Amino acid sequence: MSNTNLLQEFHAYQRKIASKRYVNFLINWDAATEAPKKSMLYRAQMQGELAADQFAYQMDPKNLDLLENVSNRSDIDELDRLSAKKYLKEINKIRNIPQKEYVQSVQNRSIISRVWEEAKQTNDYPLFAPYLDKFLNDVKMALYYRDVKQQDYFDVLLDDNEEGMDSKKYDLFFDTIKAELVPLMKKCLLQGREIDDSLLYAYGSKAKQEEMVRYLADVCYYDLKAGVIKTSVHPFTSSAGTPDDVRFTVRYHENYFTGSLMAAMHEMGHAIHAQQCDPASAGTNLFGGPSAGIAESQSRFNENYIGRSLAFWQTHYSKLQQVYPELLNNVGVTDFWRVLNRIKPTANRLEADELSYPFHIILRYELERGIFSNQISVKELPELWRQKSLEYLGVMPNNDSEGVLQDVHWGGNVGFGYFPTYALGTAYGAQFRAAMLRELEIDQAIRDNRLDRINSWLKEKIHFHCGSKTPEQILLDATGEAFNVRYYIDYLKEKYDMIYFH
Ligand code: ZN
């Protein structure tokens, strides 16, 4: 086949897959934001039918040949070849699963995510447990059909989320974090100033929080003409496969008003990443980023390195005071910034300060590893969660809703092996920040209310490249060196010294 014909067929293939993903994107967005509870089973059936169609299309020998051809032809553009290779890589993960079992696992996942919501809202782990078991079985079944040895299950899941990572590398990373951050936390809490954070728990109506989130969307240059903001049980960002439709959700706690603001900053980091992708990648599997770690580096950058910085609040505190005058008019901006950043280990990951955050991740990482080495059963999880929460955070969750049920991931939406990328991404983010500082006055840009300057840097070095580079290559090209955890540790030491000792 001529090069031109082959490419035409390949681009038709990309469009076909994109259209199927688009339908699922809309269904999942609707399920998490608006669909009535009773729609759960019908939706799962429909998603099963769609999955069966897509599976048949992907496994059609003609289409598999097409992908092989494109990925091997040297006279074809590099990006097309890379795209074809990525389709094949994903297909190989499910290729040997009998179609019926595959479709069943898709239906299960659709249901599990809604059961998790219900269980979290009603604090009912026994309701969720059998579904979690089912989900785990489906994940293990897929690994089995991929010919992965049982002792490698967890490492393969880690690599699926962040190419090149395994438990050995994560152990090293987490050991460094423990060795550096535990003494730092102790020093701040025992010798540093006392910070009264009661104002964070004062009543802040949902309407006012929504007003602030809209304001932050403007500040961050999130394009609302190419986006939507809604409410869901767990905040998330989702994109249709084009920079022109990137949506995110927030959840609001009326007794913790900064929670929604920081979560919105996090999600907007993801959203701006997607909105700044090369438009030419729309409708292909290169759209988005290369990995979960790079994705989380962008959300954590916006959340922490911008949203929790003093410069940011020096610029936007007056707006916050306008929205909450009774609460904040007598509090100075530096004091507010200290309160926002105070070290306060809590049971809730999304409310964690920057220092205790990685310990939430270590807790989940250790539990997942135990699950996949068959040392931990679904039944034991709530109790082990409580034990580890006490061990790493010094806090016991009040109930399972605030403990083992708090995150969306094990409820089928994200899956296993993802959590460590939050900590890794945060550390990547600090390295990006250090590189950016060599070229850009970050605080000045923030104070000038010109986050577009920061967005432009991120676009040029990271976002625009979408999935065309590996995480390692992005780090190398953007920062001039391979991943180096020192930037993260140094950033935290400097910041917390300012908060507790100056
Ligand atoms: Zn995220």
What does the model show?
It is a single chain. The protein is mainly α and 502 residues long. The protein has 2 domains: 3-147; 167-501, Neurolysin, domain 3 (Orthogonal Bundle), CATH 1.10.1370.30. 65% of the residues lie in helices and 2% in strands. The chain contains 21 helices and 3 strands. The chain has helices at residues 3-33, 40-59, 61-72, 78-94, 99-122, 125-145, 153-161, 167-191, 206-220, 257-275, 292-306, 310-323, 325-328, 333-341, 357-372, 381-393, 420-437, 442-447, 451-461, 471-479, 486-501; strands at residues 229-231, 237-239, 246-250. It has a 3-stranded mixed β-sheet with strand order 1-3-2, with helices on both faces. Strand 2 (237-239) and strand 3 form a beta hairpin. Helix 3 crosses helix 4 and helix 9 (206-220) packs parallel to helix 10. The longest helix is centred in the N-terminal third of the chain and has 31 residues, at 3-33. The model has no long low-confidence stretch (mean pLDDT 96). Zinc ion binds next to helix 10 and helix 11.
Mean pLDDT: 96
The CATH topology of the largest domain is Neurolysin, domain 3
Number of domains: 2
CATH C-level name of the largest domain: Mainly Alpha
Order of helices and strands: HHHHHHHHHEEEHHHHHHHHHHHH
Largest sheet: 3 strands, mixed
